Amino acid sequence: MRVDIISIFPEYFAPLDVSLIGKARHKGLLDIRLHQLREWTHDVHRTVDDTPYGGGPGMVMKPEPWGQAIDAVIAEESTPPRLIVPTPSGRPFTQEVALEYAKEPWLLFAPARYEGIDSRVMAEYGPRLRVDEVSIGDYVLAGGEAAVLVIVEAVGRLLPGVLGNAGSVADDSFAPGAMAGLLEGPVYTKPPVWRGHEVPAILLSGNHGAIARWRRDEALRRTAAKRPELAARLAGQALDKRDREVLDQVSHPGDAPAAETT
Ligand code: 6GU
User: Residues 9-27: what's their mean pLDDT?
Assistant: First the structure.
């Protein structure tokens, strides 16, 4: 996959040289190219922002440098990239969106500073580049750069050959499949006792069926406790009798435990 990022802070993306994404770049699985937006300004101050029409606080990014920068990048290939504009007013970036982006051969990111990019830039490229304005959560960042790092990491790890163990993608919280809609439960490694805390005995039992059931119970409990809105959506899904017992236990903790069936 090719990824281009146009920003006034290309140095912000140094972390993309590290760890999983850094290795994917070395292996040639990810071709990330950084561009300094100010290269497409023509005044002595290399101005990229101006005051907002209609008044109000802050500054807005001027359309001309963005237009010239995007034109220069997209001219390099005949098939255009998907244009992703991070903004707190975008549609939510979810695992589903990450899977959608992972199918694209080429992504172009346009992270903004200040109050955002003049809206005519999105209007200009919308029809041609399938412009997507996305938000990574309900909070406000100082700029879109950190959001680009988040999106590139979420998408990059889904690309074939990037993760050593393909199974870890299938097990992700939010991944489609048997554990769809559930948060992952707790995990443990050696030693079996650490500072008096024991690893749950079931995980040492070698009983793979019982371990899978225990993990599902823990995932259900954690989801109900930390993400009640996700747990509520589970109710309409394929839950077995034990699943429903575990969820009932979380919502009515005072009740007697369900009788063991063997
Ligand atoms: Cl994508 N950008 C900014 N500036 N703030 C955000 C965001 C993006 N997503 C959540 N907050």
Answer: 97
